[in-house]
Amino acid sequence: MFLSVNQLIALFSLCFLTPFIIRKFLSKRRPLPPGPRGYPVVGALPLLGRTPHVALAKMAKLYGPIMYMKVGSRGMVVASTPEAARTFLKTLESNFLNRPTHAGPTILAYDSQDMVFAPYGPRWRLLRKLSSLHMLGGKALDDWADLRAAELGHTLQAMHQSSVRGEAVVVAEVLVYAMANMIGRVVLSRRVFETKGRELNEFKDMVVELMTTAGYFNIGDFIPWMGWMDLQGIEKGMRKLHEKFDVLISKMLKEHLESRNKRKNRPDLLDVMLTNRDDVDSPEQERLTTTNIKALLLNLFTAGTDTSSSAIEWALAEMLKNPEILRKAHDEMDRVIGRNRRLVESDIPNLPYLQAVCKETFRKHPSTPLNLPRSSAEACTVDGYYIPKNTRLSVNIWAIGRDPRVWENPLDFNPERFLSEKYAKIDPKGTDFELIPFGAGRRICAGTRMGVVMVECLLGTLVHSFDWKFDGESMDMEETFGLALQKAVPLATFVTPRLPPSCYVGSN
Fold this sequence. Notes:
By secondary structure, the protein is of the alpha+beta class.
């Protein structure tokens, strides 16, 4: 028996509307946090626009510090104040330790086999332990301080040569060159790029593309039945990018294995990981796979270069926009260090204004505007609101840094605020929820300590070593959204040496 047209329409309407009726009925019994209604099928996805962190911050002013919305068919809760972030990342942390499944880590990060997106468990703890012991932890950072200093010498030499030739310095290029080589010397026992050139530029572009595309709100992640169409072309681009990175990382592995015997007395991080992989006497859950190793290398060479470099670029842009801040930084450094030698890391505790500039940059321009998403393992209640199971959690770190209830004149770049009694003790390493540029809790960025050291050390060295001059009419401060918050227009500026020529000589 065939149904009439009217019966078909009625049946379709019933199927389409039933979930909404059930949700509305349940929400009366267990109220969800307030939030935008959105549209049928796509939910609030169109409301996020090209800068979701800004759109969500505006919504929070209407709906409050904890919002709930449907993005496609997925539920998402957004925390936009220090108190809300503390609730999710500390009080309810054990319920939000895993990441939601989506295309970015599946395609780019070897099906989430890396440290950033891996499920919380033994393999994730092993990746974290090895990288902390041999690269990212406090003792490891101290052990490779000399390598950082040597690599900074190469960077200063290249910048000095640019100044002699009268060429502008493209800050992002300089920073990626320095950081990729620093990481390469710890992970691979060698510099990745001997000179700035085509290979460096290709690598930089790949890193920026990865950090940008991985932050997109991909339609297929939120409306799974539309995923196969890849309407935005995001997944196609990710697959091409993954192939490029896999070729690069596979080459690193191959070359490293061929030269392994040369490093028996001083193994690097990759040697340690390969030894762990090849240890057949260890239980399987305590051994890495080749895929884990490749995925971790991807983490270190992308997030390790891009997040810190973007923070330093923003800091320099703000200082050039506000020359008085640059003058004060120079005055402090000249008083503490003088102008006859380079800055060394042991100088940094004696440079409170430099540290304040770095904190102010983390506040106003957090490298990660929205924390990497988490997912609720079970339903829970927050401030009387019901949060369903498998709800995606986003903490708007950018909004917290610009909350006028927390920060006086939050749109101003004012390092002095961190020298005042009110803010002096606030630390960016995840304990003070007013300033969490690296996240917080057990899944805080594993490179938090390294990130702070790199930003303070590189920014301080660059500022102390050169006078900076921006020739443009006005500084463009537009943002490009992604996992990391990029400057839309890269900073290019002219530099003039402030120190004796001997300070600009590279070393091995």
